[in-house]
Amino acid sequence: MIVLVRDPRDTIVSAYYERTERGRIWNYTYHTDPTLSPADNRSRFIRERIGSVQTLLSHLSASAHLLNRFWSESRRAVLGTFESLFAGGERGACALQLILTELMRSRPAQEFVTAIRDRCTFDQMQREADESESIALAPADPKRLVQSRKVRRGVAGAFKTELRQTDISYLESAMRDSLPAMFGYRPARPQSPPSAITTNQS
C-alpha cells in the first residue's frame, strides 16, 4: 500500500480550483459568489462543512489509521509526500525510489529511478495533460488555461500567495486539532507573548 500526502494548506487550494474550474467534469462544482472577490470566495470555501478542509482532514486521519494498522501487522505500506517527490537532489531520488520499490516489490536500479525522474518532471506532466484528449487530464476551459489545468502549479507552499493570513490561521488551527502528527505538517502552536513584569522600584 502507498499513501501519498501533501500539505493540507496547498491541497485545499488545489481542491478549490478543481471544484470551481473543473467541477463540472465530475458534477461536483463549487459555485462561487459573483458578488465576492476571489479571496473572499476562497475564504468561504475552506469553511464549508463538507468537501473542504474538514473532509480532507478526516481522510488523512483515516489514512493514518490504516498505515498504523498495516505497520502493526508487519504488512507493507509506504508513506510518501508530494514535497519529497518534487524535492531535488538525494531527497527526491530517495522518495521516488521508496515508492518504486513498493510498486515493483524489489529495489530498482538507480539508472531506472533517474530515467523515471527525467520522464516525470512537472513541465513534462503539465505539457502532456494540456495536450491530452482525456477530460480527466485536459484543461477544462482553454480560455482559463492557468487555473483550469489538471496539472496546475505544483509549487510547495503556494497557499501563502493564495490565502489571507486569517484563512491560513483557520486552516492551521484545524490541522493542530485533527491532523495526525505522522505526516509532518501539523503546525506548532503559536507562542503566547511574555507576560508584562512589574517591579517595585521603591
Descriptive account of the structure:
With 202 residues, the chain is mainly α. The protein has one domain (2-183): 3-Layer(aba) Sandwich (Rossmann fold). It contains eleven helices and two strands. The protein has helices at 8-21, 23-26, 38-46, 53-72, 82-85, 89-104, 110-119, 122-131, 145-148, 159-162, 165-178; strands at residues 2-5, 78-81. The chain has a two-stranded parallel ribbon with strand order 1-2. The longest helix is centred in the first third of the chain and has 20 residues, at 53-72. The model is unreliable at 198-202 (pLDDT under 50).
Spell out the key features of this protein.
Rossmann fold; disordered C terminus; two-stranded parallel sheet; single chain; 202 residues; mainly alpha
Spatial order of strands in the largest sheet: 1-2
Q: What order do the SSEs take from the amino end to the carboxyl end, as H and E?
A: EHHHHEHHHHHHH
Mean pLDDT score:
91
Query: What's the total count of β strands?
Result: 2
Largest sheet: 2 strands, parallel
Amount of beta strand: under 5%
Between the first and last Cα atoms, what is the distance in angstroms? 70 Å
At the first level of CATH, the class is Alpha Beta
Question: What is the 3D form?
Answer: globular
